[in-house]
Design brief:
Blueprint (H helix, E strand, L loop, with lengths): L4 E5 L3 H13 L3 E5 L2 H10 L4 E5 L7 H11 L5 E5 L4 H9 L4 E4 L4 H15 L10 E3 L2 E4 L4 E4 L2 E4 L2 H12 L4 E3 H8 L5 H18 L5 E6 L3 E6 L2
Parallel strand pairs: 1-2, 1-3, 3-4, 4-5
Antiparallel strand pairs: 6-7, 7-8, 8-9, 10-12, 11-12
Helix pairs in contact: 2-3, 6-8
Length: about 230
Amino acid sequence: MSKLNILLAEDDENLGDLLNKFLQSKNFNVDLARNGKIAFEKFIAGQYDFCILDVMMPEMDGFTLAKEIRETDKQIPILFLTAKSMKDDKLMGFQVGADDYLTKPFSMEELLARITAIMRRVGENVEKGKNEFSIGTIKYEPELRVLHLTDGERKLTTKENQLLQLLVKNENEILDRQATLRAIWGDDNYFNGRSMDVYIAKLRKLLKEDENIEIMNVHGKGFKLVVKV
């Protein structure tokens, strides 16, 4: 069974280290970020199955981080950690896409139980291959940045790969244009937007060998990867 890859965002150094060591001892792969901005950069660059986000963090708070994550991944489970127990904070957490909420202080066993319950609830199969996807009839390996086409392998550039990963993660869902620009280019200005349009055109060209695959423009919103059955 492959290990669950967890993104842990916690600015409290002692608690972060404690959670990191505990989760690793329970056979999870853990990537620890000390603030929300670093956590989002790691999220975009990596492949994660689960997010544990502290609410109160410098650079970017947990709620904002969750919103950014949800713009590019609608499915990944998110568990909030907070020192607050106010009803409004919990409501805010669920509004931005949290699967559950854990109020500090908490026991390590309770954290483990929440992770297990969430993963069972969302039906995540931790044994599924995270290193290989099928886009219609085309095999895609994001970690190797490779598309397997009929005329051979095509190595993707870093940005082509990042963009295709986001499209695949959100298949049949609208991928927000501005959020994607911020995630990959760091800024949603006009020039980066033009650059992204060029990459979208390149991906369309690569995927056109399967006529059931389409990257649609959604006017005023973004893009949608549609794979017809």
